[in-house]
Amino acid sequence: MVTESTTPTPHHWTLRFKHHKTTLLLYVEPTQSFPSIKSDLLSVLQSTNHTTLPGSSQPLPSDPEDLKFGIPVDKHDLSKGWVDLEIPETEETNGVGAKGKSGGKKNIMNTSPLGAGLKNGGMLAFRIRGGDGLDDEDGMAGGEDEWDVLLPSYEDEYGSQSQG
Length: 164
Known about the structure:
With 164 residues, the protein is an alpha+beta fold. It has 2 helices and 7 strands, in the order ββαβββββα. It has helices at residues 34-47, 154-158; strands at residues 13-19, 22-28, 67-72, 82-84, 90-93, 99-102, 123-128. It has a 5-stranded mixed sheet, covered by helices on one side. The protein has a two-stranded antiparallel sheet with strand order 5-6.
């Protein structure tokens, strides 16, 4: 865990966490666990005197495990949306009839930024698990495609100027 008194080193990564129009930067270790990162993110939100998620009326959760992370469908085109970072546990059967499980919390993809294939400067969306009454069967607010991330357009940043 990187605390306020810790000076980041070249071994730390900067991850960008997006919700609505807000982007938060956190220094993390590449092998730091996602539960620890969720705790750090919630601490940062609380330290800014937020009582709700940025741009939302949803109150901040008391438990960091109520935060969910999403990754871009296409990191080069964020308008394509976001998908849940966590790979759910599934049971699979091979051709011989043997059963096995894949995914789940212990899957390497679900343990750390390095395991998930993220890189320094990587971007994640965040939201609250099942917060606004629009839960789907997995207990998620909205559905798989419901990540509240607004991307600025050129016109938002620079205004529209007509050439005469």
